[in-house]
What we know:
- It contains 11 helices and no strands.
- The longest helix is centred in the C-terminal third of the chain and has 31 residues, at about 180-210.
- Helix 7 crosses helix 9 (about 160-175), helix 9 runs antiparallel to helix 10 and helix 10 (about 180-210) runs antiparallel to helix 11.
- The chain has helices at about 10-15, 20-40, 45-55, 60-65, 70-90, 110-120, 125-145, 150-155, 160-175, 180-210, 225-235.
- The chain is an all-alpha fold.
- The chain has one domain (about 20-95, about 110-235).
- The two termini are about 45 Å apart.
Amino acid sequence: MAEKLYTIPVNDAFDADCECPVCEMYQNIQENAIDFVMGTSYMEDDIRMETDKIGFCDKHIPLLYKRQNRLGLALMMLTHMNKTIKEMEGKMNQKIQAPSLFKKSKGGGGAVKEYADFLDNSCYVCTRMENMFKRYVITTLYLYERDDAFRTKFAASKGFCTRHYAMLYDLAPTELSSKHLSEFIETLNKVYMENFKRVRDDLEWFTDKFDYRNADAPWKNSRDALIRAIQKTNGVFVEEKKK
Protein backbone atom coordinates (compact mmCIF):
# COMPACT_ATOMS: atom_id res chain seq x y z
CA MET A 1 0.00 0.00 0.00
CA ALA A 2 1.42 3.37 -1.00
CA GLU A 3 2.20 5.49 2.07
CA LYS A 4 0.21 8.69 2.39
CA LEU A 5 1.01 11.69 4.55
CA TYR A 6 -1.42 10.80 7.35
CA THR A 7 -0.21 7.17 7.54
CA ILE A 8 3.48 8.04 8.04
CA PRO A 9 3.27 8.91 11.78
CA VAL A 10 1.26 5.74 12.45
CA ASN A 11 3.76 3.51 10.65
CA ASP A 12 6.63 5.30 12.39
CA ALA A 13 5.04 4.61 15.79
CA PHE A 14 4.62 0.91 15.02
CA ASP A 15 8.22 0.77 13.78
CA ALA A 16 9.46 2.19 17.09
CA ASP A 17 10.68 -0.20 19.79
CA CYS A 18 8.07 0.77 22.35
CA GLU A 19 5.52 -0.78 24.70
CA CYS A 20 2.57 1.07 23.13
CA PRO A 21 2.60 2.55 19.62
CA VAL A 22 -0.48 4.62 20.42
CA CYS A 23 1.35 6.18 23.38
CA GLU A 24 4.19 6.89 20.95
CA MET A 25 1.79 8.71 18.61
CA TYR A 26 0.33 10.68 21.51
CA GLN A 27 3.79 11.66 22.72
CA ASN A 28 4.81 12.86 19.25
CA ILE A 29 1.59 14.87 18.83
CA GLN A 30 2.12 16.41 22.26
CA GLU A 31 5.71 17.40 21.44
CA ASN A 32 4.58 18.96 18.16
CA ALA A 33 1.75 20.86 19.87
CA ILE A 34 4.08 22.27 22.52
CA ASP A 35 6.65 23.21 19.89
CA PHE A 36 3.88 24.97 17.97
CA VAL A 37 2.72 26.94 21.00
CA MET A 38 6.22 27.93 22.09
CA GLY A 39 7.34 28.87 18.58
CA THR A 40 6.28 32.15 17.01
CA SER A 41 2.61 31.11 16.97
CA TYR A 42 1.97 32.62 20.41
CA MET A 43 2.36 36.07 18.81
CA GLU A 44 -0.54 35.44 16.40
CA ASP A 45 -3.78 37.12 17.41
CA ASP A 46 -6.05 34.12 16.85
CA ILE A 47 -3.78 31.84 18.91
CA ARG A 48 -3.53 34.35 21.75
CA MET A 49 -7.30 34.80 21.82
CA GLU A 50 -7.64 31.07 22.51
CA THR A 51 -4.81 30.84 25.07
CA ASP A 52 -6.18 33.94 26.82
CA LYS A 53 -9.59 32.30 27.03
CA ILE A 54 -8.76 28.74 28.10
CA GLY A 55 -5.15 28.73 29.32
CA PHE A 56 -3.28 25.44 29.92
CA CYS A 57 -3.82 22.38 32.07
CA ASP A 58 -1.60 21.35 34.97
CA LYS A 59 -0.08 18.60 32.83
CA HIS A 60 1.05 20.82 29.96
CA ILE A 61 2.06 24.03 31.72
CA PRO A 62 5.25 22.41 33.15
CA LEU A 63 6.11 21.06 29.69
CA LEU A 64 5.71 24.53 28.19
CA TYR A 65 7.92 25.93 30.94
CA LYS A 66 10.65 23.39 30.16
CA ARG A 67 10.94 24.74 26.61
CA GLN A 68 13.01 27.64 28.00
CA ASN A 69 11.07 30.31 26.10
CA ARG A 70 10.27 32.11 29.33
CA LEU A 71 9.33 35.40 27.66
CA GLY A 72 6.86 33.72 25.30
CA LEU A 73 5.20 31.80 28.12
CA ALA A 74 5.17 34.90 30.35
CA LEU A 75 3.41 36.93 27.65
CA MET A 76 0.73 34.25 27.24
CA MET A 77 0.28 33.93 30.99
CA LEU A 78 0.06 37.72 31.39
CA THR A 79 -2.78 38.18 28.92
CA HIS A 80 -4.50 35.01 30.21
CA MET A 81 -4.36 36.41 33.75
CA ASN A 82 -5.76 39.73 32.53
CA LYS A 83 -8.63 37.85 30.88
CA THR A 84 -9.23 35.84 34.08
CA ILE A 85 -9.29 39.01 36.22
CA LYS A 86 -11.83 40.65 33.91
CA GLU A 87 -14.10 37.57 33.89
CA MET A 88 -13.83 36.92 37.62
CA GLU A 89 -14.52 40.53 38.60
CA GLY A 90 -17.74 40.42 36.60
CA LYS A 91 -18.82 37.15 38.21
CA MET A 92 -17.92 38.25 41.76
CA ASN A 93 -20.62 40.91 41.54
CA GLN A 94 -23.38 38.41 40.83
CA LYS A 95 -25.67 37.89 43.79
CA ILE A 96 -25.42 34.54 45.56
CA GLN A 97 -28.73 32.87 46.29
CA ALA A 98 -28.96 31.82 49.93
CA PRO A 99 -30.63 28.47 50.64
CA SER A 100 -34.22 28.52 51.82
CA LEU A 101 -35.28 27.07 55.14
CA PHE A 102 -36.71 23.95 53.52
CA LYS A 103 -34.28 23.49 50.64
CA LYS A 104 -30.74 22.26 51.13
CA SER A 105 -28.03 24.26 49.36
CA LYS A 106 -26.16 22.50 46.54
CA GLY A 107 -23.21 24.84 46.90
CA GLY A 108 -23.00 28.59 46.63
CA GLY A 109 -20.22 28.97 44.10
CA GLY A 110 -22.51 29.98 41.27
CA ALA A 111 -20.87 31.74 38.32
CA VAL A 112 -17.49 31.98 40.06
CA LYS A 113 -17.28 28.20 40.60
CA GLU A 114 -18.57 27.52 37.09
CA TYR A 115 -15.90 29.71 35.52
CA ALA A 116 -13.16 28.26 37.74
CA ASP A 117 -14.24 24.75 36.70
CA PHE A 118 -14.10 25.80 33.05
CA LEU A 119 -10.51 27.00 33.48
CA ASP A 120 -9.57 23.88 35.42
CA ASN A 121 -10.83 21.61 32.63
CA SER A 122 -9.60 23.50 29.56
CA CYS A 123 -6.23 23.61 27.84
CA TYR A 124 -5.08 24.95 24.49
CA VAL A 125 -2.54 22.15 24.04
CA CYS A 126 -5.11 19.44 24.85
CA THR A 127 -7.60 20.97 22.41
CA ARG A 128 -5.00 21.16 19.65
CA MET A 129 -3.97 17.55 20.23
CA GLU A 130 -7.43 16.02 20.47
CA ASN A 131 -8.50 15.96 16.80
CA MET A 132 -5.07 14.94 15.54
CA PHE A 133 -4.77 12.08 18.03
CA LYS A 134 -8.19 10.67 17.16
CA ARG A 135 -7.29 10.86 13.46
CA TYR A 136 -4.12 8.83 14.09
CA VAL A 137 -6.00 6.14 16.04
CA ILE A 138 -8.60 5.83 13.28
CA THR A 139 -5.77 5.69 10.72
CA THR A 140 -4.38 2.70 12.64
CA LEU A 141 -7.62 0.85 11.95
CA TYR A 142 -7.69 2.13 8.38
CA LEU A 143 -4.25 0.64 7.77
CA TYR A 144 -5.21 -2.65 9.39
CA GLU A 145 -8.19 -2.89 7.05
CA ARG A 146 -6.22 -2.19 3.88
CA ASP A 147 -2.54 -2.99 4.33
CA ASP A 148 -1.23 -6.57 4.63
CA ALA A 149 2.21 -5.35 5.73
CA PHE A 150 0.68 -3.24 8.49
CA ARG A 151 -1.37 -6.18 9.78
CA THR A 152 1.88 -8.15 10.11
CA LYS A 153 3.53 -5.19 11.86
CA PHE A 154 0.55 -4.83 14.21
CA ALA A 155 0.67 -8.50 15.19
CA ALA A 156 4.42 -8.28 15.86
CA SER A 157 4.14 -5.20 18.09
CA LYS A 158 4.81 -5.14 21.83
CA GLY A 159 1.15 -4.53 22.50
CA PHE A 160 -0.51 -1.52 24.10
CA CYS A 161 -1.18 0.18 27.39
CA THR A 162 -4.56 -0.67 28.88
CA ARG A 163 -6.10 2.71 27.98
CA HIS A 164 -5.19 2.49 24.31
CA TYR A 165 -5.99 -1.20 24.05
CA ALA A 166 -9.52 -0.37 25.21
CA MET A 167 -9.69 2.59 22.80
CA LEU A 168 -8.83 0.40 19.81
CA TYR A 169 -11.23 -2.31 21.03
CA ASP A 170 -14.05 0.23 21.30
CA LEU A 171 -13.47 1.88 17.89
CA ALA A 172 -12.92 -1.33 15.89
CA PRO A 173 -16.63 -2.21 15.28
CA THR A 174 -17.30 1.24 13.77
CA GLU A 175 -14.13 1.44 11.66
CA LEU A 176 -13.52 -2.11 10.40
CA SER A 177 -15.50 -4.28 8.00
CA SER A 178 -16.89 -7.62 9.13
CA LYS A 179 -14.14 -9.23 7.03
CA HIS A 180 -11.40 -7.98 9.35
CA LEU A 181 -13.15 -7.23 12.64
CA SER A 182 -12.94 -10.67 14.27
CA GLU A 183 -9.33 -11.13 13.19
CA PHE A 184 -8.42 -7.68 14.51
CA ILE A 185 -10.01 -8.26 17.92
CA GLU A 186 -8.31 -11.63 18.22
CA THR A 187 -4.92 -10.14 17.31
CA LEU A 188 -5.46 -7.10 19.53
CA ASN A 189 -6.36 -9.27 22.53
CA LYS A 190 -3.34 -11.50 21.91
CA VAL A 191 -0.70 -8.76 21.60
CA TYR A 192 -2.15 -6.86 24.55
CA MET A 193 -2.32 -9.76 27.00
CA GLU A 194 0.89 -11.54 25.97
CA ASN A 195 2.91 -8.35 26.27
CA PHE A 196 1.19 -7.20 29.45
CA LYS A 197 2.17 -10.52 31.01
CA ARG A 198 5.71 -10.20 29.60
CA VAL A 199 6.18 -6.85 31.35
CA ARG A 200 4.54 -8.25 34.51
CA ASP A 201 7.08 -11.09 34.51
CA ASP A 202 9.97 -8.63 34.02
CA LEU A 203 8.62 -6.54 36.90
CA GLU A 204 8.38 -9.60 39.11
CA TRP A 205 12.03 -10.43 38.47
CA PHE A 206 12.92 -6.77 39.12
CA THR A 207 11.41 -7.10 42.61
CA ASP A 208 13.06 -10.49 43.13
CA LYS A 209 16.46 -8.94 42.42
CA PHE A 210 16.15 -6.99 45.67
CA ASP A 211 16.29 -10.29 47.55
CA TYR A 212 19.89 -10.84 48.73
CA ARG A 213 19.70 -14.41 47.45
CA ASN A 214 19.43 -13.06 43.87
CA ALA A 215 22.16 -10.44 44.22
CA ASP A 216 24.50 -12.26 41.83
CA ALA A 217 21.77 -13.38 39.42
CA PRO A 218 21.49 -11.60 36.04
CA TRP A 219 18.98 -8.78 35.68
CA LYS A 220 17.68 -10.37 32.47
CA ASN A 221 15.30 -7.85 30.87
CA SER A 222 14.15 -6.24 34.10
CA ARG A 223 16.32 -3.15 34.65
CA ASP A 224 13.71 -0.81 33.14
CA ALA A 225 10.72 -3.02 34.04
CA LEU A 226 9.20 -0.47 36.43
CA ILE A 227 9.20 2.25 33.79
CA ARG A 228 7.66 -0.10 31.22
CA ALA A 229 5.08 -1.33 33.75
CA ILE A 230 4.00 2.26 34.43
CA GLN A 231 3.47 2.80 30.71
CA LYS A 232 1.52 -0.45 30.34
CA THR A 233 -0.79 0.32 33.26
CA ASN A 234 -1.07 4.11 33.13
CA GLY A 235 -0.17 5.01 29.54
CA VAL A 236 2.50 7.54 30.54
CA PHE A 237 6.23 7.91 29.97
CA VAL A 238 8.49 8.29 33.00
CA GLU A 239 11.90 9.87 32.56
CA GLU A 240 14.75 8.61 34.69
CA LYS A 241 16.70 11.26 36.54
CA LYS A 242 20.11 11.84 35.03
CA LYS A 243 22.93 10.97 37.41
